[in-house]
Amino acid sequence: MATRDVVFPPGRRALYDRNRYSPAVRSNGFLFVSGQVGSLEDGSPEPDLQAQVRLAFENLQAILAEAGASFDDVVDVTVFMVDPESTFEAIWEVVPEYWGDAPHPTLTAVGVTWLYGFQFEIKVIAKLPQAPGG
């Protein structure tokens, strides 16, 4: 098996090593990002829903930036929401702060019953920008 080209956000490698997964993997010009949640420094969930969503996006942005990308490079998004019937509107008030202008990436939203204490998770696939002269 080929060695994975893993991208780690600054200061969070221990979290991923402890849980035995990669935050993101580069492959064939794409970046596949694991689900990001609004975790505090100790790994616990941010209790306020909208703050939790913002923190999940901040964690996502840190990984994208480490790979030389931004949310503008995202082509596919999957979000997971606990009890979307009651949380969707509050979550979607935050999304435009990070989402950017149209055209938007594709989106799959999934309602779930449990996210390890979190209420929101986002995972993405991004097309990595070409290096200058590449």
TrEMBL record:
GO cellular component, one term: cytosol
InterPro entries documented for this protein: RutC-like_sf, YjgF/YER057c/UK114, YjgH-like
CDD domains (alphabetical): YjgH_like
Gene3D superfamilies assigned: RutC-like (3.30.1330.40)
GO MF annotation: an example: deaminase activity
Domain of life: Bacteria
Pfam family, one: Ribonuc_L-PSP
Alphabetized PANTHER family for the sequence: 2-IMINOBUTANOATE/2-IMINOPROPANOATE DEAMINASE RIDA, RUTC FAMILY PROTEIN YJGH
Stated name of the protein: RutC family protein YjgH
Organism of this sequence: Achromobacter agilis
Gene this chain is encoded by: yjgH
